């Protein structure tokens, strides 16, 4: 099991949610959630946002610091257009800043 899969399992267990409920809250099928949580499938960045929302935490909590950097690097490498890669970086930065503000205000843990 990957560190990411283990982290998602641990966070879900801490919330007391079963896989079906967590998956519904994240906008995923229970099968997809199960495959992500077991490490059979890595979640897409958009799915990570849904997983974090379902678990009531930050995407950076779900991904962990090293995974965040790896995801950003991968997204930027996949882009043939440097302007598009810059857009991905700006979008991710905005997401993290917004989550930090929501966390500081007590809306998410």
Task: Please outline what is shown here.
The protein has 109 residues and is mainly α. The protein is 76% helix and 0% strand.
What is the strand and helix layout of this fold?
Layout: H1 3-15, H2 19-26, H3 30-38, H4 45-55, H5 59-63, H6 65-78, H7 82-104
Any key phrases for this structure?
109 residues, 7 helices, mainly alpha, 0% strand
Describe the structure.
With about 110 residues, the protein is mainly α. The protein is built from 7 helices and no strands. The mean pLDDT is about 80.
Number of helices: 7
Spans of at least 5 consecutive residues with low confidence: none
Estimated helix fraction = over 70%
> How large a portion of the residues is in β-strands, by DSSP E?
under 5%
- Tell me, rounded to a whole number, the average pLDDT: 80
Overall radius of gyration: 14 Å
């Amino acid at each position: 099991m990957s560190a990411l899969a283990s982290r998602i399992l641990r966070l879900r267990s801490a919330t007391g949610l079963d896989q079906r409920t967590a998956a519904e809250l994240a906008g995923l099928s229970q099968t997809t959630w199960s495959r992500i949580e077991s490490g059979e499938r890595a979640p897409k960045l958009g799915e990570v946002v849904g997983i974090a929302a379902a678990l009531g935490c930050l995407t950076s909590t779900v991904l962990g610091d090293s995974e965040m950097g790896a995801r950003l690097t991968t997204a930027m490498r996949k882009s043939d257009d440097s302007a598009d890669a810059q857009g991905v970086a700006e979008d991710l930065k905005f997401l993290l800043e917004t989550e930090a503000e929501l966390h500081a205000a007590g809306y998410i843990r």
